[in-house]
Amino acid sequence: MTAPARAALWFVLGTLCLQAAWVLTVPPYRGLDEHEHAYKAAAVARGDWSPTHPRSPDGWGDRLQVPRDVVDSAHPVCESLPYTTPDNCEGTSNGDGRTTVASSAARYNPVFYALVGSAALPFDGVAALYAMRVCAALLCAFLLGAAAFVLARRGSSRWTWMCFASVLTPIVLYSSAVAAPNGVELASAVLVWVGIVGLRRDSSRSPAPDRFYLGAVAMGGLGLVMVRTLGPLWLVLILAGGSLLLGRPRVFALLRSRAGAATAGLLVVAGVAALGWTAAARTNDPGGPLGVTRDAWAALPGGWAMWLFQSVAAFPARDEIAPLGLYAVTLTVWTVILLVGLRAADHRLRRAVALVVVSAVLVPSAATLLTHAELGIAWQGRYSYPLALGALLLCAAAKPPLPHVHGRLAVALVALTVVVPTAAVELIGVLDVVRGERLSSPLAGTDSWFVPPDSVLALLVVSGATAWGVAVAVATRSRHLEPEGPAPGRLTLEPSTLHR
Predict the structure, then answer these.
(1) How far apart are CA 165 and CA 14, in angstroms?
(2) Domain limits of the chain?
(3) Residue pLDDT, tens place only, 387-439
(4) Which residues contact residue 70 at a Cβ distance below 8 angstroms, ignoring those fewer than 6 apart?
């Protein structure tokens, strides 16, 4: 097995451990709107691919035909939520083992739901929900593992892996472990960004397009556009940032190649199909106004701060803030990466980061101004994070003059930059959620939710973070991989010099 494959395998194993901690931590259906996504998945897996459904008489979502056991198992948690209606939690029995129940996810693109819903077909009730979670987690782990393999493919430094690990915030791991499409969207965006950074790194070695990196962009792009309504917009903005990073000559060279043209054509077809579904289903139609009276412009500054924090952690619901230490660790790492990366960046990289940051602020701001009367501040930080995380991953293309270390010092540096921050933030998030849910969840003390001891959850988190550290060590110490660049002050000889 090659070093990149070993690194990717270790990274996937670590990701699965971290996801397992979240799967066990969050009570069934307690993930953000998870019962509504489970309804949609159960309906799609049983043949409901229609873009239109009857509107709920209670005004929240459209009505789907869902197995009674799924609705019954979701009822305790659904009923405890402040925004649900009887039509979301009880519905109307059809007398054939199915219930007509309302879901706000009824109009969403069915591709993701077909996969997770099919995985749950052999199961009933809560077991079906856990099957959906496992399927979603495996999809995300595969995409993130592919990104890790791409990162290690041509050789990588501890700096690039630090940038990579920093974007995998607790909200990413949490989202990847519940039965909802946002985790796949985030993991797909990471793969696209890593592919773009790979094209930038390769451009210094050969002008020929690299099919491997284009394949990563294509794979991630397909996942990005097909799971959520805003996916096509995020892909366009991500590719715009990538174009600034690569430069016009490199972009034109890629598009003129067969692999580049095929990638562009595939993504255009997928994007048009996704937009066609959105137009037919009228996805995310807000419905009637809620009568919000607060001025939208006055609400925006608070929204900007909220979106930043939600990109780090907000679970199980969007308004449930994590302990402040979690945000302090993550935002400190982000600040260091941006300061060091931008200082070492060239003008192309800086312009690409500026485009990403400005777009990640303007798009949710515009959406909020347009929908504030109907929805208030409904935007969430995780919605625009597929774009925003690119600011950090773009910094992986920089080559700051960091010291070259070996042996125990190298291991300590990996632990300090990857293992410790990951373990700290994930452990804080997991333990905070599970302790709160033990006290408040309607499923606490029932057979529907198996809650392992805190020590088991901590072991899963630490094991996952350690496996990530092993992946970094394997990827960065391999001698046969091409290095990022010569060490400062190290003499390099051209092959012709050796024969003189």
Answers:
(1) 12
(2) 3-29+128-477
(3) 999 999 999 999 888 777 776 777 787 888 899 999 999 999 999 999 999 99
(4) 38, 39, 42, 124, 125, 128, 129
